[in-house]
Amino acid sequence: MYQVEYSKQLEKFLDRMDNRLFARFERARLKLQENPYRTDLDIKKMRGHANDYRLRIGKYRFLYTIIENRLLIYMYKAGARGDVYKS
């Protein structure tokens, strides 16, 4: 079982989310904790980044890194499709 940690930006985003989206996020997070490489979630590996992935839930994207040696999933950014990939 993997641990999940959030960045400050992601925590703020989660606080502002509506309940319906938050429930969908929680279900996906629990599945990710079991196996971050699942095929039943909309997950894609990000090009140009060694261990970075994106999880799509509706129109929102959640970016995360998998740190294998610590069994950690660090979720660092979330937002709408057009905004989340901008630095």
- Quote the CATH topology: YaeB-like fold
Total strands: 5
What order do the helices and strands follow?
Answer: EHHEEEEH
CATH architecture grouping: 2-Layer Sandwich
Instruction: Please tell me the overall pLDDT.
Output: 92
Percent of residues in beta strands = 25-35%
What's the oligomerization state? single chain
- What characterizes the major β-sheet? 5 strands, mixed
CATH homologous superfamily title: RelE-like
- In whole angstroms, the N-to-C terminal distance is 31 Å
How many domains is the backbone divided into? 1
CATH top level assignment: Alpha Beta
Highlighted features:
87 residues; alpha+beta; YaeB-like fold; 5-stranded mixed β-sheet; 3 helices
